[in-house]
Structure formats: structure tokens, C-alpha cells
Amino acid sequence: MTGTTNEGAASELPFSFSHTALVVDDMEAAVKRFSDVFGVAFTTPVTSVFPYVRGAAGVTQETVRTCVSLTQEPYFVLVEAQNRDEGVYARNQAGSLAYWGWWEEDMEARLRHLRAEGVRITATYGIGPDAPPSMIVTERDLCGTRLCYVGAALRDEWAGRVERDLGGDRLPESYYHVGMVVPDIDAAIERCAAVLGVPFTEAAWTESPHQVEGDVVHTPFRQRQAISRTREPYVELIEATGDGVFGPDRAGALMYYACWEPEMTRRLARLSEQGFTMDAVIRMDAGSDPIAAITSRDATGISIELAHPGAKPVMEHWASTGRLPQS
């Protein structure tokens, strides 16, 4: 199971989640959209058959069609919606994140840990009744999202697909954190640390000097946040604030893929051309260039937070020490 740490450089911190999975109704269209927006390629879609899926309906066989981004971790994983009304990959889940995933060496120990923490299990996926699960998917418990734990065999299969389709080229970066709005950040920190087995920073007040949300301008916008004390990608917890982009109605789901962007003005113009609108744009003052932005969610289910990489040392210090540097 995942370890913890107290102090140390980023390289000494525990690993974090490995992927997020988005349910899509048209795999080929979704691959094209992700490729256009993020500039990344994907593996050839593969249909996997899980012969022993134990869930609420008993034991069934399940077929899942997926593809994986040809990037460094965390991967973008796309899962084609299934022609049914209920379940993690049901057609009514298209456009939503099915779960965020973690590698796990000891799946039976992880399953015991989740149950001890009161996390309900949606399904376990295995090759037979006596084999340890190769994948575990939970109910929506952790701040309103599902978790997926993937064992070594599936992990190695995905890595092989990426290596085979990439052809030896250097893997590009993907995204460096996911954000979740939570009603009570102190309770969320306690719950996430207990379930995930990784430490979190203390909650800290952060300030956006000039944040524009549509016709509303905040000077400044203040909120409480915390991040996982892990290597990238971080888990970001944001306490519900106001009635806009971080309002309580945004709780209960992963909000966005957060990416570093050195050329913010150019990238925002490109996103606008691609049909995105902005939920929030952050500047140092009204006349300066953007330093961060959050897009609306498009029809595929993509929402992006962009941040200037000048903030990267701050995030690394916060994760490694547990304390946000004072400006």
C-alpha cells in the first residue's frame, strides 16, 4: 500500500494517483478532441474482457473498451460508454469522470483497508473466483468521487501498450493535479489521508489578486486549499467558497485537469477557438496578463485549469514541507 512521509524533497515524497478515466460515448471523436486540446496521442483502443466481475448484480463478465494517453503519468484514460442504464460505464455517465486511479501492489490488502475505512465497493475485477482482484472500483464516497485501484498485471499491460504505440519517443507531460471542491476542507483532509494513505498539507488561505468570473470581479478572491504531500500529480482540495466557480454546487466531482502553461495568452486564445469559455481568469491586476485560468466543461467532459509554471516551486515547497510559503 502507498507509504507516507513527513519532510523531504519532492523525490522523497510518495507517489500519487496514476490516471483518471473519462467515460465517452464516441471513442474516436473523444481521442480527436483530446489530441486537439492537449496535443497528445493515444494508444490504439483495446477491448478487454474481465471474466469475473463481482458487484451488486453478483458475478458477471464485463467487456470494457479503453485507450490510454501516450504521456507520462498521470494518464488520460478514455472508456467507451456501455449500452446499459446503470454502472460505472453506463451510457448516462458519458462526459463524466468515472474515477481516478492508483497503482496497487497488494490488492487484497488494499481491499481490506478500504472496507475497514467504510468505503463501499462497486465491483472487483478478476480472472477467477480464487484469484486476487486485478482492479477495484469504489462507490462515490471520497469527496463525491470514485477510486480505482489497478494491480501490477494491468499496470504492466498499460505500460506495454504505451511503449509499443509510442515507438521509443520521449513521453510528453500530461497534467500536474486534479482539483476537488469540498464542503468542509478539514474533514476532507482527514478522510482523504485515511482512505488514500497519503499525508496532506495543512489547509491554507490562498489569494487570487484579480479573479474574473463572467461579469463578477474579485479583488481579491480568497479561499482555503490543501494538497497531497506527494510527488506530482497532486490531489487538490478546495473548500467551497462563494457561488461561482468554487461554489458548493461544484462539490462532489473532480473539477479539472490542471496543466502548466508558460504561454498563457496564446493558449487561452487557442482554447477559445476550440469552443471553450472561461469560468475564471486570474491576473495580478486588471491590466496584466493572465497567470491562471479555468475553463468551462465541454461536451466531451474536458475542463482545464492552466497555471503559469512560475508557481511550480511554491507547489513543491508546499508539498514537501506541508506549509504554504508566505508571500
Describe the structure.
This is VOC domain-containing protein. The protein is built from six helices and 18 strands. With 327 residues, it is of the alpha+beta class. The protein has two domains: 10-166, 2,3-Dihydroxybiphenyl 1,2-Dioxygenase, domain 1 (Roll), CATH 3.10.180.10; 177-321, 2,3-Dihydroxybiphenyl 1,2-Dioxygenase, domain 1 (Roll). The strands form two sheets. The chain has a ten-stranded mixed β-sheet with strand order 10-13-14-9-15-18-17-16-11-12, with helices on both faces. An eight-stranded mixed β-barrel has the order 1-4-3-2-6-7-8-5. Strand 2 (46-55) and strand 3 (58-68) form a beta hairpin. The longest helix has 15 residues, at 152-166. It is globular and about 60 Å long. The relative contact order is 0.15.
* Overall form: globular
* CATH level-two architecture of the largest domain: Roll
Assembly context of the chains: single chain
Using only C-alpha atoms, the radius of gyration works out to 19 Å
* Secondary-structure class: alpha+beta
Describe the SSE topology.
Blueprint: E1 19-24, H1 27-38, E2 46-55, E3 58-68, E4 75-80, E5 97-103, H2 107-116, E6 121-126, E7 135-138, E8 147-150, H3 152-166, E9 177-182, H4 185-196, E10 204-208, E11 210-213, E12 216-218, E13 221-227, E14 234-239, E15 254-260, H5 264-273, E16 278-283, E17 290-295, E18 304-307, H6 312-321
Parallel strand pairs: 1-4, 5-8, 9-14, 15-18
Antiparallel strand pairs: 1-5, 2-3, 2-6, 3-4, 6-7, 7-8, 9-15, 10-13, 11-12, 11-16, 13-14, 16-17, 17-18
